[in-house]
Design brief:
heterodimer; A: 767 residues; Aldehyde Oxidoreductase, domain 4; 3 domains; seven-stranded mixed beta sheet; globular; disordered N terminus; B: alpha+beta; Ubiquitin-like (UB roll); DNA polymerase, domain 1; 2 domains; 5 helices; 5 strands
Chain lengths: 767, 158
């Protein structure tokens, strides 16, 4: 059952708010849609990567001479083919990047820092030749001790990944290097004074494991570099302008010489916002002067592309008996993987963001370990810190005997609340999600045997950023819309709907494509829940430019001033005192006379989209715990979230449901498992178990709409928030079912059974 | 070693191809026959993105060798629509928005079609267990299961 709470009233629109069939739909149900691995170029070579089998080793030498002599080997690249880069942190959407580290992650230089770290790559005429060539490359490794766990990595004497890493954000700067890249702190008020007013204080420590985005499509690209250095790159990515920028920088080429085309993308969730194969494929193609296709195996995806951080989190919250939170404190230690740059900063910023707090402090540490470098994963950093906070909130509610939704209502952030990370919120819909949860039938339905119910909330910022869109009016009145944010979950549909709404034309008169880097100005990537927000804003602007131009052309024909013509109902007509003097002209009529009234008509918007607004969610989970096996099943789930306005409700619901499913996997099953040898033991979907259809119930959704005043249609990003609440909602539900509080993810059957047995021995378990 | 010369039927058409012993049926479909609608998500039979039918039976084409396809009748996503007319499952997937990125979609459609051919009136639980071999990371399966149940109802004339 899908419900919708209306605040805006969508009936004022013809297209916005409807469930139209997506324009790229037929291609995707017939197998026509071309994803990363689906392109073959004439004469293409096969590219393969040689990866370090060791978690930490100095690379003394690499000898490629035997491989180079193998017939069919056309190019080999190693660290010598990539120029070193200066150390400098550059903002990249929700994460920061440092090209000194990017170049080392793409191809190991001084050291291999994780099992799976690329050491060399070959391009050959066949898979078997490429495979044989990799075996012939001799790498002389000096083995070094490794460190996998975040807390161990912070200890004095831990193996150092980077001998020159001095912790940033500490005054005075430490004199000795460590694995702690950075310390950060956010907050306001007086923590000690706050805790002194508390009737109840709960302090708990939590651990979470690295989990992978788990997109079904592995990384893939085809690169072709011509004799004069013109490069073509076909790639599955969340942002092809970003790929172009990274590749140009790492290879020292002009940006304009690289044209990047985004294939259809088979899932990303943040994991396709960085480069792995792309600079290697371009470098190989430049050497071989032939196209090079590279596709990761699933095992390579797990071993060498970014999961999100595992973490150790301590949360302390104090509240009065009436439920008012008087102080909140957090300490976050996030694994970054082999290079600095975990999402600890956004994690710290959003830890307490749902609450209106006078005294709050969060400290975070970014810690390197011998694991693959983390990449963004859906609300990067947020699910980890908010999991811990939402569990402690639940415990506070229990301790003071208050309903957990009431407790949240009593402290909920609203318009004007100063967030712990600094800014004041505009209109936000958190309270509306809590009220919707409270009044939802799910919240009142009786539970069965061994079942429990939990509630948790979540927050994500959302971003805007640089965006370009073009809208061409064709000679028959149809329109061609080109956007630059890869469509990862139905955004083409939303953009067409907004364009049709503005222009007053039928939806099927607009054909939409994702343009390549040569067709539009810069576009930041699809991420930060920005695609429908930012490209939607640019689409509306481009549509309004077309409408304005249509008025201008009619004014010329009618010999009226431009402002005496208005655009209405899909066409132009004289306005004001001239109303009725000429018959209205449709957009099609205007298109037909474009040539003789001034030439082709087009709208082109190039904006830096400001005004992205946060999205809050509240989730209700029911679980059933098997007392004999410790298996936890989610038996009912309701996700309630503020969308601002749902342009296409089905795809908004889809975001909620997909985020919940990933959150359930994070909560119950998914984890990177390492042996003492520092090697990943479960690099496949058999042992890294993402939820399958039989693991899940239907996932009910409620779309709350508190419009974002900064967007022409009120859009907020919706994609990331849904993965934030599930871990805590489920932990809280398990506690409700068993009276045992779980603080370590995943809450997998062996762990749950052991904890239940321990609690039962003390008479402290409910089941 | 010389390549193997194999003759088979794909989506009703006779085909011939040359393949190495180690080439999987998936490799052959994608690289030799240009049928890239069948996807590779894992190569180990865990994700179902490469689902096809072989003599009517649902299999992961990454787990079958190309040489094993000799004389068999293979069904892929490219053979699902009839001319301009989409299969009811394809239509229902679109109506229910049962796809986001769409890379798992061909595998789900081929698997769901095989389900409905053997079991025209499945329960929700039967659909969920039949499709448990197909991974989707985007949708949480909700809309996929609804689309399959709705298509089944339509195909029964219910």
């Amino acid at each position: 059952m899908q419900e919708k709470v209306k605040n805006g009233g969508a009936s004022e629109f013809k297209w916005v708010g409807t469930r139209a069939v997506r324009p790229d739909g037929v291609d995707k149900v017939t197998g026509r849609a071309k994803f990363g691995a689906d392109l073959a170029m004439q004469g293409q070579l096969v590219g393969r990567v040689l990866r370090s089998p060791h978690p930490h080793a100095r690379i003394r030498s690499i000898d490629t001479s035997a491989a180079a002599k193998l017939p069919g080997v056309k190019a080999i690249v190693t660290r010598d083919d990539f120029k070193d880069q200066p150390s400098e942190f550059i903002p990249a959407g929700e994460m920061m990047i440092n090209y000194r580290d990017v170049v080392r992650n793409v191809m190991a230089r001084e050291k291999a820092l994780y099992e799976g770290h690329p050491v060399a790559a070959v391009a050959a005429t066949s898979v078997s030749v490429a495979r044989e060539a990799l075996k012939l490359i001799k790498v002389d490794y000096e083995m070094l001790p490794h460190v996998i766990d975040v807390v161990e990595a912070m200890q004095p004497g831990a193996p150092l990944l980077h001998e020159d890493m001095i912790t940033a954000g500490v005054e005075p700067a430490p004199k000795t290097p460590s694995n702690v890249a950075k310390r950060i702190e956010f907050g306001h008020g007086d923590i000690a004074a706050g805790f002194a007013q508390a009737d109840v204080v709960v302090e708990r420590s939590f651990t979470t494991k690295p989990v992978h985005q788990g997109y079904i499509e592995p990384h893939a690209c085809v690169a072709s570099v011509s004799e004069d250095g013109q490069a073509e790159l076909w790639v599955t990515t969340q942002g092809h302008w970003i790929v172009r920028a990274h590749c140009a920088r790492l290879l020292g080429w002009d940006v304009g010489k690289i044209r990047v085309t985004a294939s259809e993308i088979g899932g990303g969730f943040g994991g396709k916002t960085v480069v792995y194969l792309e600079p290697i494929a371009l470098a190989l193609s430049r050497k071989a002067r032939r196209p090079v296709k590279m596709v990761m195996t699933r095992e390579e995806v797990f071993r060498a592309s970014g999961p999100t951080s595992g973490a150790h989190v301590r949360i302390k919250i104090g509240a009065r008996k009436d439920g008012r939170i008087v102080a909140a404190e957090g300490e976050l230690k996030y694994q970054a993987g082999a290079f600095a740059g975990s999402p600890v900063q956004p994690g710290a910023m959003c830890a307490f963001a749902p609450y209106d707090l006078e005294n709050v402090k969060v400290v975070g540490y970014d810690v390197v370990t011998n694991r693959p470098k983390v990449a963004a994963y859906r609300a990067p950093g947020g699910p980890i810190s908010e999991f811990a906070v939402e569990c402690v909130i639940d415990e506070i509610a229990k301790r003071i005997g208050m309903d957990p939704i009431e407790l949240r209502l009593k402290n909920a952030a609203k318009q004007g609340t100063k967030a712990a990370y600094g800014p004041k919120f505009g209109p936000v819909g958190f309270i509306e999600t809590l009220e919707a949860a409270k009044s939802h039938a799910h919240w009142r339905t009786p539970l069965g045997k061994n079942q429990g119910r939990g509630v948790a909330s979540g927050f994500w910022f959302n971003i805007g950023g640089e965006t370009s869109v073009s809208l061409l009016l064709n000679e028959d009145g149809t329109l061609s819309l080109t956007a630059g944010t890869p469509d990862i979950g139905g955004s083409r549909a939303a953009l067409c709907m907004m364009a049709a709404e503005e222009l007053g034309v039928e939806l099927d008169k607009i054909r939409v494509q994702i343009g390549d880097t040569g067709q539009l100005g810069y576009n930041f990537l699809t991420g930060g829940s920005r695609a429908t927000f930012s490209s939607g804003m640019a689409t509306v602007e481009a549509a309004r430019e077309v409408m304005k131009e249509a008025c201008k052309r009619a004014a010329k024909l009618w010999e009226l001033p431009e402002d005496a013509v208005e655009y209405k109902d899909g066409g132009v007509r004289p306005a004001g005192p001239n109303a009725g003097k000429h018959s209205p002209m449709t957009l099609r009529d205007i298109a037909g006379v474009a040539g003789k009234t001034g030439g082709p008509i087009a709208g082109y918007a190039r904006i830096n989209a400001h005004g992205a607004a946060p999205s809050f969610a509240t989730h209700i989970a029911d679980v059933e715990v098997d007392p004999e096996t410790g298996k936890v099943s989610v038996v009912r789930y309701t996700a309630i979230q503020d969308a601002g306005r749902a342009i296409h409700p089905s795809y908004v619901e889809g975001q909620y449901q997909g985020g919940v499913a990933q959150g359930i996997g994070w909560a119950l099953n998914e984890e990177y498992i390492y042996g003492d040898d520092g090697k990943l033991q479960n690099p496949g979907f058999l042992d890294y178990r993402v939820p399958v259809a039989s693991d899940l119930p239907m996932i009910d959704t409620v779309i709350v709409e508190v419009p974002n005043p900064r967007h022409p249609y009120g859009v907020r990003g919706v994609g990331e928030t849904p993965i934030v609440p599930p871990m805590a909602a489920i932990a809280n539900a398990i506690e409700n079912a068993t009276a045992v509080r779980f603080t370590d993810l995943p809450m997998s059957p062996p762990k749950v059974l052991a904890a239940l047995d321990e609690a039962r021995a003390k008479g402290a378990a409910k089941i | 070693m010389a390549k193997h010369h194999i003759a088979a039927t794909v989506n009703g058409d006779p085909v011939e191809f040359l393949c190495e012993t180690e080439d999987t049926l998936l490799d052959v479909l994608r690289d030799q026959l240009g049928l890239t609608g069948t996807k590779e998500g894992c190569g180990t039979g865990d994700c179902g993105a490469c689902s096809v039918t072989v003599d009517g039976r649902l299999v992961c084409s990454c787990l079958l060798l190309g040489v094993e396809a000799g004389g068999r009748s293979i069904g892929t996503i490219e053979g699902m629509a009839r001319g301009e007319e989409l299969h009811p499952l394809q239509r229902k997937f679109l109506e229910h928005a049962a796809l986001q990125c769409g890379v798992c979609t061909p595998g789900f459609l081929v698997a769901a079609k095989a389900l409905l051919e053997g079991s025209p009136d499945p329960t929700e639980t039967e659909v969920r267990y039949w499709l448990a071999g197909n991974l989707c990371r985007c949708t949480g399966y909700d809309k996929i299961v609804r689309a399959v149940l709705d298509a089944a109802a339509e195909m029964r004339g219910a």
